[in-house]
Design brief:
This protein is an all-alpha fold. The protein folds into two domains: about 60 residues; about 70 residues, no CATH class. The chain is about 80% helix and about 0% strand. It contains six helices and no strands. This is DUF1468 domain-containing protein. It holds the Pfam family TctB. InterPro entries: DUF1468.
């Protein structure tokens, strides 16, 4: 079984479980957001399964083998993201959700963005991070009406 089929089936089962859990309660208005994302997951997982069945499995396996990285290179590429994620978790208790999310987003954009890194590029990453946090603020405060984890600053 190809990787696309396995990932599609796992995503379909997971989104089905989310839909089942969100549709069982009496008050469905509370679960609109999870239902929305689970519906999107169903569509994309079905598209992935369709693509996996419509392509030749041998060609798919050859493409995957050609595009895989050795484990040491994959770890080197993913280790900075893991470090940013751990820093985000530890900083959230003190800095709050929004400031730590801004630092994490800007840090990931700087780590995985194009090289060389210049002062203007850092400003662009900071501005993009601020826009990302503004969208999160609007989403949590107005659309979902939930409070994010608070810290000392925010």
């Amino acid at each position: 079984m190809s990787l696309d089929r396995r990932v599609g089936l796992v995503a379909l089962v997971f989104s089905g479980l989310i839909l089942w859990a969100a549709l069982v309660p009496e008050n469905l208005s509370v679960y609109v957001f999870p239902i929305f994302w689970a519906g999107i997951m169903v569509v994309f997982s079905l598209a992935l399964i369709w693509r996996a069945f419509s392509t030749n499995e041998q060609d798919d396996t050859a493409k995957q083998a050609a595009g895989t990285l050795p484990l040491s290179q994959a770890v080197k590429r993913l280790a900075p993201a893991l470090g940013v994620f751990l820093a985000y978790l530890f900083l959230m208790a003190n800095l709050g959700f929004y400031l730590s999310a801004w630092l994490a987003f800007s840090g990931l954009a700087t780590l995985y963005g194009p090289r060389p890194i210049s002062a203007s590029r850092l400003l662009v990453h900071g501005a993009l991070g601020a826009g990302f946090v503004a969208v999160l603020y609007l989403l949590f405060s107005y659309l979902l009406a939930v409070q994010p984890p608070a810290g000392w600053l925010f």
